[in-house]
Structure formats: C-alpha cells, structure tokens
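Thread: Newbie trying to understand structure tokens

Hi all, I'm a second-year student working on a class project, and my supervisor (Dr. K.) asked me to get a predicted structure for one chain before our next meeting. I've only ever worked with sequences, so writing a 3D structure as a token string is new to me. If someone could post the tokens and maybe explain what I'm looking at, I'd be very grateful. Here's the chain:
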Amino acid sequence: QVQLVESGGGLVQAGGSLRLSCAVSGRTLSGATMGWFRQAPGKEREFVATINWSGEITMYGDSVKGRFTVSRDNAKNMVYLQMNSLKPEDTAVYYCKTGGAPPGPRDAWGQGTQVTVSS
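---
Reply by user tm_fold:
Sure, no problem. This is what the structure looks like when written as tokens:
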C-alpha cells in the first residue's frame, strides 16, 4: 500500500519561500505522475501542480504559475514543491498525491502539511 508523507510546511512572511517535500513509500515512484493540491479553510480543493514520471512535463495552476516549481527525485522516491514569492492567499493545507489532475478514485493522498503566509 502506497503511503505519502508531506513535510516542510510552516509560517512564513509574504514574499518568502518554502520547500515542501513528499516522501513516497510502498511503491516505486518511477512511472507515476505526481501532483500537489491545496485546500484553504472554507474553500474547495485547488490544483497546484503536476509532474510526469520523468520530470520533463510539469503543469501549474494559474494562481501559482511563475512562483512555484514542482520537481522529483525518483531514486529517492521524493517529490518537491518549491514555493517562492508567497502570498497570504497561498495559505492552505498542501497535499501530495499520486496521479495527475483532476483527482481520481485510485489516487493516494498524503496527510497534508500546513502553510501559513502572513501579511
């Protein structure tokens, strides 16, 4: 059974940066598209980014384009989300998942990591 564990969240001031990590266990990461989503209180889950198996193809939500970068290390079974120029509206719980967007019924999700951006 695949397990995903996110880390790297925290409190940061607007304009700052954070790097989220997603450790995958229970299956090899190679061959799998991976994704990041986020959910703020009272809001629907929002697409953040996806990355294909090789890392050559990435996609981003409109609200994070140009500021966030998704990457992966298949040898380490890790997926990353580098977040720069953070804004208060980026405050949310960030989730790592298997598969791309939109989410599917077979996707595995992590427990999430809280990111809070202060103004």
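A couple of things are worth pointing out once you decode it. Strands lie at 3-7, 10-13, 18-25, 34-39, 46-51, 58-60, 68-73, 78-83, 92-98, 113-118. Residues 93 and 114 are 4 Å apart (CA to CA). Feel free to ask follow-ups in this thread.
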